[in-house]
Amino acid sequence: xxxxxxxxxxxxxxxxxxxGGHRIIEGVSLEMGAGARTVILGPNGAGKSVLLRIxxxxxxxxxxxxxxxxxxxxxxxxxxAMVFQRPVMLRRSALAxxxxxxKLAGMERHERQARxxxxxxxxxLAHLAGRSARxxxxxxxxxxxxxxxxxxxxxxxxxxxxTANLDPGATGEVEAAIANIGATGTKIIMVTHDLGAxxxxxxxxxxxxxxxxxxxxxxxxxxxxxxxxxxxxxVQGELL
Length: 240
Prior knowledge:
By secondary structure, the chain is α/β, with parallel strands linked by helices. A six-stranded mixed beta sheet has the order 5-6-7-3-8-9, with helices on both faces. The chain has a three-stranded antiparallel beta sheet with strand order 2-1-4, covered by helices on one side. Strand 6, helix 5 and strand 7 form a beta-alpha-beta unit. The longest helix has 16 residues.
């Protein structure tokens, strides 16, 4: 059987988004292909999370369009997943949280437990499989959210500020998990305002400011010498 055609590239064409009479995204055009870990970086209020939700399909653009290389049928298994800054944990065990996500994806009952257990193993959470998800630490919950997404075997994984409000140890564990997922070939598209996280995880940077893309470049080049005045100020900590 032939492998399914890739979802990528993801094309964003002249996308604008307005809410409450305010223009949040202003004429963004991007094409994102397989491989590189893409980090959308910028100050708070730049429109990063809104753009990520538009890419994932949670928000419809006011104008412009978002297209994948192949369409995803409404009744079929989605080949993209998203992890939020504050993931919702169900009132059940860590293992059951992952298995429930697989149930919603239409996976047969006999496959769910084994797939869910493998995802916990991959994310270093096997010892917490029977623990209630709601009593886990913030870092453990975020890794559980990653495991829940990873169990779906997505081709594209969207991440919205995945290390916000975590202590340094938990941040390191979550970042290691993200790097490991990216190393398997899953496309990572991540939003953050954290320069440290961007330096550690990004292959390429998309710098967003006031709803506009001001730069898109290799991560090393961006941090060594941003091309725009706004990005340079952000890197120097002068643009909050």
